[in-house]
Every structure is written in structure tokens, then in C-alpha cells.
Amino acid sequence: MTNNPPDQSSQAANHETKRIPLAIDPNFMKTTSSALPTDQSDDNDKSQNGTHQNATTGQSLVNNPYEMFGSMPLDQLIPVILQSRGIGSKFADLSERVLSEEIANDAEDMEHVKNLDEDVEMDSSDFPANADQEALKPQQIEGPLAREEEDQMTQEQFQQLKNSTVQSLNLSVNEASLALEFVSLLLSSVRPSAANASMSPFLKNAVPTASLNAEKIPYEKATESEIVDKKLTTRGWKLRSLEESRVLLKDTHKTLEASLRKEQNYWSKVSANTSKKDVIFKMKDQETGEKSLGLKYGYEDSGSSYKQERGIAILRYNANKDALEAVPAEKQQFESMNRGPFEKFMRVRIFTKIQEEDDYILSGETALDDLLLAADNSGAEQNIRRQISKLQFLIFEKELMYHLKKESETLISYGVTLENENKITVEFPTEKIEFEMMNLTDEVILNHQQDAPKTNDRKAALILVMLRMLLVVMYKKQIRKKLLMVAHSKAVHPFDNEALLLRPIMGKFRHENYLNLLQKVIKTYVLDVVANSVVTEIPSDYRKQNIPVRRETYDKHITKLDDEITLFDKILQLPRIDLKVELPGSGKIEFGLESSNYCNATTSVKLVDASNATIFDTRFSNFKELEDFLHFIVSEYVTEGKQE
Amino acid sequence: MSDKGLLEQLNRTTETLSHSLTNLIRYASISTEKDDEEHGAQELPESTSKTSTGGLMMVSGQTAQLIRGIQDLMVMTRNIREKWVLTQIPDEKADSQQELEMAKCADLLEEWSKAVLGKI
């Protein structure tokens, strides 16, 4: 690197350049080197001519006349050219021919220079200078091309090489300056003045001097025992952590195995004890917060419309008993609301009136259902199916009571009293029937087991069974209604949507009583008066009329349902009986006893004379009136006629 | 979750399981440590604090991962069981509901009326 300023002597500068045949455009040098701030600042300090900073930096790398002159404006360049060509020469004299001659001379000159060393310089002061001036341009344009041809190198390869060279140079300059900075900084703590001289201003500004220090630390090779020691500690730690891991894994394994076993038991029990008929779904156990399975034991899907209780139990696994437990989801909530015990069942009691006394005696009582008995004797309590059955039984009983209560509200005028929310009493002339929800407690169970059999036990049981069956019939009707579209379900029966539990049964009793009464009346007013008269019951074709026409288009399930429902028509139909009293010689009287709502009674009386002409056809809802009327017609038409 | 989802989850879980187990075993081995020393920081055991904290963290981390993986698998079995129980409970002895004999039932009902009314 030469740092000669060109102003010192153009001659000397020219000579320098002459010795370096430029193969590359120094402009590249200039641009790349300008990227180094340290160089720039260094050079700035030293170079006096600073017309153009780039130019000076370019000079600092190589003495490059072309770059200097090339960047000159023409009005400066021409005087320089003239000056270098010597005094007296004119710019106008310069021509291509003259210049090429000069180049040729220059080539010779070069050889001269080689042979004679510096001697040629003496020959003329202007010529060589002139020559090199002119020689620069051709060399730059033509020289490289010529070489390229010689070296069989393509332009691209050349460019590549050039670029890489420039880059490497750039890099090395950069690295070197960095190294210089580093050393300077390091030195600044001991020899500030020397360091300051070589430090770049940027570094001086950015880093305080004497801020870097270095010291030599001798490397002590670890002794054998130390290495062994360290290894031991390492392995110790390793062992310890592995041990911890082992313990952790073992503990987890234990707990997981336990829960896995529990899970396994649970699911095998579920699979063993549930069937397609069960409604099972995912559910969260509110008590324990675990994910669990819910089981529906309510009758909602079977047609029940009972909404007081959802009828859902959680299938819970009891690890102690190794058994499944069905816990009603609402049990806790129910009991916490102080609504009495969750488990209730219905008991039917029959009281018979003591003659001549205004008191009743218990004559019949329903027994406890087997399901309700504590099954500790057989161990069947363990069985989940039994538990489910029990739950089903209990909810059924509750629903039964619910509907009974609703139904009895309308029957108050017929001797039905709602004594409290758990008790309904139905009074008949000779007896009283009590429907009561009993809390399922051990005491109740014990009392029932000790009870002695009574005369009306069977009757009470039959009534209770019929009540249950009628509720099932209600379910079935509901299902049928759902199955048939709304359009089809024109109410076949007026009581289709109502609760029909107590009324049909009450109707049976009341009808029987009315019938007895009617027969008594007939006996007193007809049979006893008219000789040889006979009462006969006319077999009724009433049932036949009521059987709906079988619709063949129905699904077989609906047909089956229909059959099952019509089976109960005998029970559910409104009671009716027809009696005929034959009056020898004077026609007959036909009686029809029927009820429009199971509980009341209307009697139709039809008097037909011997010539088969109807004389009277009336209805009575009052037996007193009926008596009077009978008395009248018998005396008026039958006995009168006979006397005549 | 679909069957495909379950399968994917199974693959994922088993992979993490084997991965963490491998890591644990690799860490536990001493011979590999020697290999490292031969061409690594020769004769220079790692610092105590590094081995202790690093080892502990790594071992406990991998162990936790192992455990979590197993737990995941168990949750999966639970899921599968729920799927099963909610979709296909085995059929139990065909239709156990016997056919009603209509005539007989009618007779029984007739009998009921008589019994209740005290005609028998």
C-alpha cells in the first residue's frame, strides 16, 4: 500500500503507476475500501488534499491516476493533460493517430525501462510522463481483454475471480483493523499514549480506554482424585434421581392399578348386569364428582308423564362390597329438602263398619311387596338388578299416589277424602278403603311381617294390583297416542287422557250397591205386588259395541298395544246393567242401571204393555223418585188392569 | 371421539411413552457418559450443580411423562368402554317378555271383579 499523495510530485506518481500494470479497475478498490471507517479516518488524518473523500481513500490503497483524473471535471482534466504533455503542447494537437504512435513508443519504452532501468527517465522529462498518461487508458480498456484471450478465461470467470479477490481483501482489511483495535484497547491500560495513536475515533468514543484487561491464568489439570470425586458425585446424583423416579413410578403404579382394578370390576359388573332394556347414559356423579354412568329407572319411556321425579340413578361401584349400587340421583337433594323419606310405598287398608256402631274395624291390609323386604336373609341386596327393581317399584308407587290424589280431587262428592298428602280415604256404606303412602322404614316392615292374616287381605291386595294395572293401562294409552299420529287419535274414549284409577274400581262397588238397591226397590214395588213376576238380567251387548274396529294397517306393535288396552275395557267401561221384569199378562218393565261417570247412577224405566206398546220410558237419578214412580205405574197399569 | 381419533391418540401416547422411557434409560447408563468424555471435554466431569439439577429435572420430567402417558391410556380405555356401553349392550336372552294370553287374562279380570265384589 502506497500512501504517496499525488500532489507531491506528479512525476513520481506517474512512475509508480508505470510499474504497476493495472489489471483491474481501481474504482472497485475505492468503493470497497471506503466501507472501512477506520481506514478512512486514518487516511483522512494523513492526506492533505481532501477535495473528495472517496478519491483520497482510493489513493490510500493504490496510486491510481485514472481514478483521480477520471473523476475530474473536464475543465480541470484538460489543463492537467496539457501540463503533463509539456509546455507548448496543445490539446487540439492530440489525435488518435498521434496517440497510437505514442503507445507504440511506450511499448518500446517499457522494454527500455526493463533494460536500462531508470536511465530512460533522464531522456526527456515530458515524454514518459506523457506516454504513461496516455498509456493508462488503453491499458485499462484493451489490456485486460488481451490477457483474457491469452489465459482462455471468460469474462464471467474473470469477474468472479475479481469479486472474490476484492471480497477477501476487504475481509482481511476488516479483520486486521479489528485486531488492531483489540490490541490497542488491550494496550490502552498500560500504555495509553501508544494505544491512543492506533485506536480509531469510533472506538475511543464507544469504549472508555483501559476498559479491557487480560491476564494469564495457568491451567491446572484436575488430579485423578478430583476427577474420581466429581464422577462419584455425578453418579450419586444420577442414582438419586433415578431412585426418586423409581419410587414415583411405583407409587403411581400402585394407585393406577387399584383404580384400574376398580374400573375393571365396575365395567364387568355393568356389562353383566345391564341389558338392552336399560337406559344407560354418561353422567357426572354429583356427590363424588366422578364421571359415572346414569341409569334411568323411571317410566318416562314407557309412557309415564310423572315429572315430580326424574327417575335417574347413578351406577356406583362400592369397593367394600365389591358390588354395584344404584343410587337415585335425587335422593340426597330430596331428603335435604325435608320432604320426608325418599322411599315410600302404597298400602291399601279396608275397614269394615261395625253394625249399629259408628266405628270401623280393620279387616284387610295389603302385604309388603317382596322387593321392599330387607333382603339380608338371602344376600340379594347385593344384586343390582334387585336394587333397580326396587327403585322402579318405588317410583311407580309414588306416581300411582300422585295420580290418585289428582283423581280424587274430583271425587269428593262421592265419599272420597284427601286426609293428608299421603292418605286418601274412600267411604262406602259398609266399609272404608284407605290408600296410604307409607314411609319405608324398618319399623313399618317389622310391623307388617308380624301382622296376622285378615279376612279382607285378599280384597285389599286385589284392589292395589288393579290400581297398578290401571296405571299401566294409562301408560299404554299414552304410548299408543304417541305412536299414532295426532290425526288418528281422536279420543275413542272420553276418559282417554284422564287418570282412570280409582273411579273404575269405585264404580264397581257403587254399581253393585246401586244394583242391590234397585233390586230391593223392584222387589218391594213390583215383585211383591204383582204375582208371578220374575226378574231376569238381560245379557248386555254393550261390550261388543265398544270394541273398536281393528285397523289392519297398524303396526303389529300398535295392534298388540290395542289388544292389551281393550283387555281392560271390562274394567274401565262405565258400569251398566239391564234388568227385565216379566209381568204375566200385562207386558214387562225394563230397567237399565248405568253411570255416566262411574260414581253416579241413573235408572231408566220402560213399561211395555202386552200389545208391545211402550207406555212409559223415563230416567231417574234418584231412587226415591223411582220408588214413587214404580208404585204409580204398577198400581195404575198392572194391578188396575188385572182388576179390570 | 371417533375410532380414527382414538387410534391416533393411541399411537401418539405410545410414542411418547417409549420416547420418555428411552430417555430415562439413556440417562441412566454410565457407559455412554464415558463415550462422551473420550471425545468431548476429556477428563472433565460436568459440574455438580449441572448434573444435579439437570438430572433431577430430566428424570422427574420423563417420569411424569411416563405416568401421564399411562393415565392417558387408561382414560382411553374408559372412553372406549363408554362408547361400548352407550352403543351396543349385548342382547339379553332375546325377548323375555312372554306373549299375553288374551282369553286367560280376560277371565282373570272377570274373576277379579267377582272377588272384589265379594261374589265368590
From TrEMBL, chain A:
- Return the annotated region ranges for Disordered: 1-64
What's any one GO cellular component for it?
mediator complex
Q: Where is the composition biased (Polar residues)?
A: 1-14, 29-39, 47-63
Q: Where in the cell is it found?
A: Nucleus
A molecular function GO annotation: DNA-binding transcription factor binding
So which domain of life are we looking at? Eukaryota
Q: Which InterPro entries does its entry note?
A: Mediator_Med17
Q: What Gene Ontology biological process does one annotation of this record name?
A: positive regulation of transcription elongation by RNA polymerase II
Alphabetized, the UniProt keywords read:
Activator, Nucleus, Transcription, Transcription regulation
Kindly report the protein's main subcellular placement as a broad class.
Answer: nucleus
State the family it belongs to.
Belongs to the Mediator complex subunit 17 family.
Tell me the subunit arrangement.
Component of the Mediator complex.
Listed PANTHER family = MEDIATOR OF RNA POLYMERASE II TRANSCRIPTION SUBUNIT 17
Q: What does this protein do?
A: Component of the Mediator complex, a coactivator involved in the regulated transcription of nearly all RNA polymerase II-dependent genes. Mediator functions as a bridge to convey information from gene-specific regulatory proteins to the basal RNA polymerase II transcription machinery. Mediator is recruited to promoters by direct interactions with regulatory proteins and serves as a scaffold for the assembly of a functional preinitiation complex with RNA polymerase II and the general transcription factors.
How is this protein named in the record?
A: Mediator of RNA polymerase II transcription subunit 17
The taxonomy runs: Eukaryota, Fungi, Dikarya, Ascomycota, Saccharomycotina
Automatic annotation (TrEMBL), chain B:
Q: Which Pfam families match?
A: Med22
Q: Which stretches are tagged as biased composition: Polar residues?
A: 45-56
GO cellular-component term (any): core mediator complex
Q: Where is this region: Disordered?
A: 32-56
Q: Which UniProt keywords apply?
A: Activator, Nucleus, Transcription, Transcription regulation
Q: Where in the cell is it found?
A: Nucleus
Q: What top-level branch of life does the organism fall under? A: Eukaryota
* MF annotations from Gene Ontology: transcription coregulator activity
What's a single GO BP term from this record? RNA polymerase II preinitiation complex assembly
What family is this? Belongs to the Mediator complex subunit 22 family.
* Described function: Component of the Mediator complex, a coactivator involved in the regulated transcription of nearly all RNA polymerase II-dependent genes. Mediator functions as a bridge to convey information from gene-specific regulatory proteins to the basal RNA polymerase II transcription machinery.
Q: Assembly state and interactors? A: Component of the Mediator complex.
Per its record, how is this protein called by name?
Mediator of RNA polymerase II transcription subunit 22
